[in-house]
Specification:
The chain is of the alpha+beta class and about 250 residues long. It has helices at about 15-20, 25-30, 70-80, 125-130, 135-140, 145-160, 165-175, and strands at about 5-10, 45-50, 60, 80-90, 105, 110-120, 180-185, 190-195, 200-205, 210-215, 225, 230-235, 240-245. Strand 9 (about 200-205) and strand 10 (about 210-215) form a beta hairpin. Glutamine binds near residues 92, 115, 116, 144 and 145.
Length: about 250
């Protein structure tokens, strides 16, 4: 399992969010505290961020462990952004080890990360592939279960579905066809939306200033709120809402 996080709020450097916290995402790549599956997250990493006023995010991704990248610490120190999504990866068996499979995935103004796995990948593809057009399958961003989940979610976002509903319905349609862990995380720079389905997730709101949604707390300070399993979270610096994932709404 991977670890991921998203931040929205007053502009910060990625270093403040992922490197400086004592148990932050950087450290979680070799010493996660709450990870339920896997031990280290050394199969690549990625950052995606928005510049103010620009709806198209930038990404910096590598297939190496985050601690082995010679450029990351400088970049993370000098960049400033009001919206960031980052992940460290522990690759699921049978998936690509390449940079293309390191989150965040991106498209249509969204950044996406998946903490979890589809049972039986790649054979699980069969029943799920029926949900996608051939063009979507041929243009999957990577040979990875997460890329398939992203394509399913993206189809709903493109159709104009509200992001919380799109996430809930994507979890429902995947979970209906194969057993899966599906902690999903997206942002368009204005809202963070996430699901909890099989692994840990927390949020920390500093009302009016910032919000953080993360697989696990980056420090032992106050304000970290665990999100119950089987939930959908919508978060902005002004409010966090959590509602149960109701599988009876399966698409
Ligand atoms: N299945 C995804 C991948 O291989 C996510 C893995 C994870 O959560 N460890 O990248």
């Amino acid at each position: 399992m991977c670890r991921h996080l998203a931040y929205l709020g007053e502009p910060v450097s990625p270093a403040e969010v992922i490197v400086e916290p004592p148990y932050g995402l950087y450290r979680q790549s070799w010493a996660p505290r709450l990870q339920r599956h896997g031990t280290v997250n050394a199969d690549g990493f990625g950052l995606g961020w928005f510049a103010p006023g620009d709806p198209v995010p930038a990404r910096y991704r590598r297939a190496v462990p985050i601690w082995a990248d010679e450029n990351l610490l400088d970049l993370a120190r000098v960049l400033r952004t009001p919206a960031l999504l980052a992940a460290v990866r522990s690759a699921t068996a049978g998936t690509s080890a390449e940079q293309s499979a390191a989150a965040p995935y991106a498209g249509d103004g969204w950044l996406f990360s998946h903490n979890g796995a589809l049972a039986g990948w790649p054979s699980a593809l069969g029943t799920l592939a029926e949900l996608l057009a051939p063009a979507d399958l041929l243009t999957l961003e990577a040979r990875c279960d997460s890329a398939l989940v992203w394509a399913l979610l993206r189809r709903r976002l493109r159709a104009g579905q509200e992001v919380g509903g799109a996430l809930a319905d994507t979890v429902a349609e995947v979970a209906d066809r194969t057993s899966a862990r599906l902690n999903l995380l997206v942002t368009d720079g204005r809202v963070i939306a996430a699901t909890v389905w099989g692994d840990t997730l927390f949020h920390r709101l500093e009302l009016g200033r910032s919000v953080l949604v993360a697989s696990e707390p980056g420090d032992d300070g106050p304000g970290w709120t665990p999100v119950p399993d089987r939930s959908v979270v919508l978060a902005t610096p002004d409010a966090v809402t959590v509602r149960p994932l109701d599988l009876t709404t399966a698409a």
